[in-house]
Specification:
FAD; elongated; flavoprotein; about 425 residues; about 20% strand; 5-stranded parallel sheet; TIGR03862 family flavoprotein; RsdA/BaiN/AoA(So)-like_dom; 15 helices; BaiN-like; 7-stranded antiparallel sheet; single chain; alpha+beta
Length: about 425
């Protein structure tokens, strides 16, 4: 095997977490790295994620953690095993950003935002000699196999690196950089692409005028949602034409697929998941003593105006029988008719199928071209699973590139508690 050499040139297209973690790892291995990005600065979607506190990963047991990747678990589990949640926390703390575990088990930086971490990270990358070519939009390859970009002036820029990492993201929030235009480029190379679809998004729902006019933007707290036998506790938010929020996102893949199959999805809302059906029925068996339905439900069942309004969506005349009313409160039906747009989704499903890649995340049809991050065909709920997988696939692609270039892995640390990412 040949030793690491700065004469080896690597092009990374995409300046999100997957591309940047690969750039750091490869630069430490002694190769020359250039990161190309079509935006004026890198990490824009990463910064946006920081507005919600920057949920880096999750502290739950590893087996449960990787189960969140559903159909992609068999291929994602070994990738995340090689760069685990504790490794991501150690890397973050190596950049001077301490982390903590929240009450839900989610992991955040103590700064509770992305900007300090990104600043430290970019400083480290510059110190490692990583070069950035910003305002460079990737157009594909020319007839000689060179990468082709257009720069800010519209001029053509070409590069012919020893290996290329594609880390262009999905297609949500395109104004931040990831617009999904790469799908056409790869399809023209004969590479199959699973259609890009929204993930972790809201859904449309034909609310009545009462809900639309009085409760838009109101939260539903301490609820549970059930679909296809899967129940998720959490919160949601009522929108003018639908529903969104953490509990919805956790079921979004199942709901989206059902809508794709049959045009709608019947979701059930439990407004009092803390009470059993029997306990709630007993409370509702109390004498009403002339109280209005709203007053009675507020006192006996602890429901607010929004919850009561949602019950009336399916039962304008609320049932009087305590058991029937309790069942409605525990399983209010919500008929979802569509998904919110891909552009507004938190993340993207679809992309490059793993069948198009070898075990090193290299495209079988394009030797020397690797793929990482949200371009790959996997999805996961919010809660730290998105960023963890993005980082882990960036590290896995690094390992693949080093193998392709015949650079020994010993060029990187094998200490998982080090600030250095390791393949």
């Amino acid at each position: 095997m040949s030793p690491p050499s700065p004469s080896r040139q690597i092009a990374i297209i995409g300046g999100g977490p997957a591309g940047l973690i690969a750039a750091e790892s490869l630069a430490r291995a002694g190769v020359a790295v250039t990161v190309y990005d079509r935006m004026p600065s890198v990490g824009r979607k990463f910064l946006m994620a920081g507005r919600g506190g920057l949920n880096l990963t999750h502290s739950e047991e590893f087996g449960r953690f990787v189960s969140r990747y559903a159909e992609a678990e068999p291929v994602m589990a070994p990738l995340i095993e090689a760069f685990r949640p504790d490794d991501l926390r150690a890397w973050c703390e190596g950049l001077g950003q301490e982390t903590f575990v929240g009450s839900s088990g989610r992991v955040f930086p103590k700064a509770f935002k992305a900007s300090p971490l990104l600043r430290s990270w970019l400083t480290r990358l510059e110190g490692l000699g990583v070069r950035f070519a910003l305002r460079h939009t990737w157009r594909g390859w020319d007839e000689d196999g060179a990468l082709v970009f257009t720069d800010a002036t519209g001029g053509i820029v070409k590069a012919k690196p020893d290996a290329t990492l594609l880390a262009l993201g999905g297609a949500s929030w395109p104004r931040l950089g990831s617009d999904g235009a790469w799908t056409g480029i790869l399809e023209r190379q004969g590479i199959a692409i699973a259609p890009l679809r929204p993930a972790n998004m809201g859904f449309t729902l034909p609310w009545s005028e009462v809900i639309r006019s009085r409760f838009e933007g109101e939260p539903l707290k301490r609820i549970a949602l059930t679909f296809e036998g899967v129940t998720v506790k959490g919160e949601a938010i009522v929108t003018a034409n639908g529903i969104e929020g953490g509990a919805v996102y956790a079921l979004s893949g199942r709901l989206r697929n059902a809508i794709d199959r049959q045009g709608s999805a019947l979701l059930h809302l439990d407004l009092r998941p803390d009470l059993s059906l029997e306990a709630l029925t007993q409370r509702l068996s109390a004498p009403r003593k002339g109280q209005s339905a709203s007053t009675f439900l507020r006192k006996a069942a602890g429901l607010g105006p929004l919850g009561i309004a949602i019950l009336r969506e399916s039962a304008p005349q609320l049932p009087l029988e305590p058991g029937t009313l309790a069942r409605l409160i525990k399983a209010a039906p919500l008929t979802l008719t569509g998904t919110k747009s891909l552009e507004r989704a938190i993340s993207t499903a679809g992309g490059v199928p793993f069948s198009e890649l070898d075990e090193n995340l290299m495209l079988r049809r394009l030797p020397g071209v690797f793929v990482a991050g949200e371009m790959l065909d996997w999805e996961a709920p919010t809660g730290g699973y998105l960023l963890q997988a993005t980082f882990a696939t960036g590290i896995a692609a690094t390992r693949g590139i080093l193998s392709f270039l015949r650079i020994p892995d010993a060029a990187l640390t094998s200490n998982p508690r080090s600030s250095t990412p390791h393949p």
